[in-house]
């Protein structure tokens, strides 16, 4: 078979050669049971239709077959067979292909490929019907009021859920394939007259430069290629499974990356403060949303600093004002307090991991057993002092109140580091640890975006919108950090 300038195999006018190519490259018939071919004789020409079981809508393919078979009863011309066959492929997405490599890619994506005797090109029809679940509310982003739909593992459905909320002719969904073997579909979504063209160009270039066999871990693999995270535990992109959250970020000027087989979409660029916001704040009145935000901020701060600060007061009682000098264990223990804190904190992580891997009907019972029996028995036998359990529990609740799971785990790692620093160096360890923590956060950049913006560099108006949940009519300026082309949301 002939090759083109890009060293790709051209489609042959002899359908037997094309069939042999499919047999050699994808195991048609003998090695791959899910790859099949249906052969017809239409207008005295051999027509081969190749398909992939499991990813095609069989009912629709049968309707196409009926249309093609009826050609012999209604048409007499034979010199224009391809055009007649193409006209009978009653579908909104029919495309012409010129080489066999593209035919294989389309076939393995779930399209059917039509080869016609005497023609050096083929036709593809998009009859994909991917197995999957219906849109439902994400478990990690539930709201009291609001939409109950969520992204699924189907990239086509996810694009439709976004289109439903933004019916703007300038919304773009650019799709490309990544992975030498997996050929995973990735969609880049943005609003053309809002998003920064330079940002879109950088993201497209980074995705096109990905060289890997396959994206089996989907969006997480894409993230690691995109932002070069290394061993930095803090999330550099935001994940969401809610279409309303993704649509809101698109209107602000962000770029959304959807990866097929993943229900989470990537929002970029993002800062630390994007990870501490929740859709519930915008489903309530501004005053209520502000209250919820402050409570959430308090929980996040306590999840990082409560345990190191309490340990510091235990080790240095002189730092306590007289009004709160009751803080600290009232009884002595054979185990150092810092060891108790580390054991209890890691024990909470054991429970979290066990709850994830335990069936839902059993996870509640397991939590009760762990909290009531293990905790109480550990106090009775003298392993822990009661205050250790109290403060570890409060810090754990603060971690669970963090909207971003990735951020909560990173905060836990920071908390453990501060605990060790305080245990070794006491007050200087706490001061130096907190300082280093802020310096590390300030040094992080995600796609040239400062991680602590709008705190560092300071932007008063943007920081006010972080602290206070302003009403929608008043929040008519897009965040400058994404460099939007159109800075105002409402003209």
In words, what does this structure look like?
By secondary structure, this protein is of the alpha+beta class. The protein folds into 3 domains: 15-125, no CATH class; 155-270, no CATH class; 282-449, no CATH class. It is built from 15 helices and 12 strands. The chain has helices at 15-26, 58-69, 71-74, 81-88, 100-108, 155-165, 197-208, 219-227, 243-252, 286-315, 337-357, 360-380, 386-400, 405-443, 460-467; strands at residues 35-42, 45-52, 94-97, 112-116, 122-125, 171-178, 184-191, 238-240, 255-259, 265-268, 445-446, 449-450. A 5-stranded antiparallel β-sheet has the order 1-2-4-5-3, with helices on both faces. A hairpin with a 5-residue loop joins strand 4 and strand 5 (122-125). The model has no long low-confidence stretch (mean pLDDT 88).
Strand content: 5-15%
What do the pLDDT scores average to? 88
Helical residues, percent: 40-55%
Give the distance, in angstroms, between the N- and C-terminal Cα atoms. 59 Å
**What's the alpha carbon Rg, rounded to whole Å?**
29 Å
Which secondary-structure class do the elements indicate? alpha+beta
SSE ordering: HEEHHHEHEEHEEHHEHEEHHHHHEEH
Instruction: Output the number of helix runs.
Output: 15
Q: How many domain units?
A: 3
Overall spatial form: elongated
- In terms of per-residue confidence, which ranges show pLDDT below 50 for 5 or more consecutive residues? none
Question: Strand count, sense and closure of the main sheet?
Answer: 5 strands, antiparallel
Strand order of the largest sheet: 1-2-4-5-3
What is the number of beta strands?
Answer: 12
Quaternary state reads single chain
């Amino acid at each position: 078979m002939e090759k083109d300038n890009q060293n790709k195999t051209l489609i042959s006018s002899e359908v037997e050669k094309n069939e042999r190519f499919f047999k050699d490259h994808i195991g048609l018939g003998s090695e791959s049971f899910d790859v099949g071919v249906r052969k017809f004789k239409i207008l005295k020409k051999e027509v081969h239709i190749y398909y992939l079981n499991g990813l095609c809508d069989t009912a629709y393919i049968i309707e196409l077959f009926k249309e093609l078979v009826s050609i012999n009863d209604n048409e007499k011309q034979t010199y224009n067979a391809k055009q007649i066959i193409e006209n009978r492929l009653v579908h909104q997405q029919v495309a012409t292909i010129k080489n066999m490599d593209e035919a294989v890619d389309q076939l393995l994506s779930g399209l059917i490929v039509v080869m016609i005797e005497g023609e050096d090109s083929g036709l593809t029809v998009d009859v994909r019907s991917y197995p999957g679940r219906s849109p439902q509310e994400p478990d990690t982003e539930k709201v009291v009021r609001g939409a109950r739909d969520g992204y699924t593992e189907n990239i086509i459905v996810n694009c439709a859920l976004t289109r439903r909320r933004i019916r703007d002719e300038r919304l773009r969904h650019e799709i490309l394939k990544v992975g030498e073997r997996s050929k995973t579909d990735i969609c880049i979504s943005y609003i053309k007259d809002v998003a920064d063209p330079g940002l879109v160009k950088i993201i497209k270039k980074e995705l096109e430069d990905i060289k890997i066999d396959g994206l089996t871990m989907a969006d997480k693999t894409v993230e690691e290629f995109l932002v070069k995270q290394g061993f930095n535990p803090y999330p550099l992109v935001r994940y969401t499974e809610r279409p309303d959250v993704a649509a809101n970020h698109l209107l602000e000027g962000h770029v959304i990356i959807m990866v097929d087989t993943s229900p989470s979409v990537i929002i970029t660029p993002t800062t630390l403060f994007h990870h501490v916001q929740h859709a519930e704040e915008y489903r309530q009145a501004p005053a209520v949303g502000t209250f919820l935000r402050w409570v959430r901020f308090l929980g996040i701060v306590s999840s990082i600093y409560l345990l190191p600060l309490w340990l510091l007061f235990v080790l240095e009682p002189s730092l306590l004002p007289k009004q709160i000098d009751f803080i600290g264990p009232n009884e002595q223990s054979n185990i150092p307090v810092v060891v108790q804190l580390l054991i209890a904190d890691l024990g909470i992580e054991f429970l979290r991991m066990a709850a994830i891997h335990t069936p839902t009907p059993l996870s509640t019972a397991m939590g009760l057993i762990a909290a009531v029996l293990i905790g109480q028995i550990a106090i009775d036998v003298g392993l822990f002092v009661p205050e250790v359990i109290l403060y570890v529990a409060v810090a754990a609740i603060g971690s669970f109140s963090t909207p971003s799971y990735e951020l909560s785990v990173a905060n836990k790692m920071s908390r453990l580091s501060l605990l060790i620093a305080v245990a070794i160096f006491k007050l200087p360890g706490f001061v130096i640890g907190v300082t280093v923590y802020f310096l590390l956060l300030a040094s992080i950049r995600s796609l040239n975006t400062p991680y602590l913006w709008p705190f560092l560099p300071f932007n008063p108006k943007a920081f006010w919108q972080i602290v206070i949940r302003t009403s929608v009519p008043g929040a008519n300026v897009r965040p400058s950090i994404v460099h939007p082309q159109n800075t105002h949301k409402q003209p």
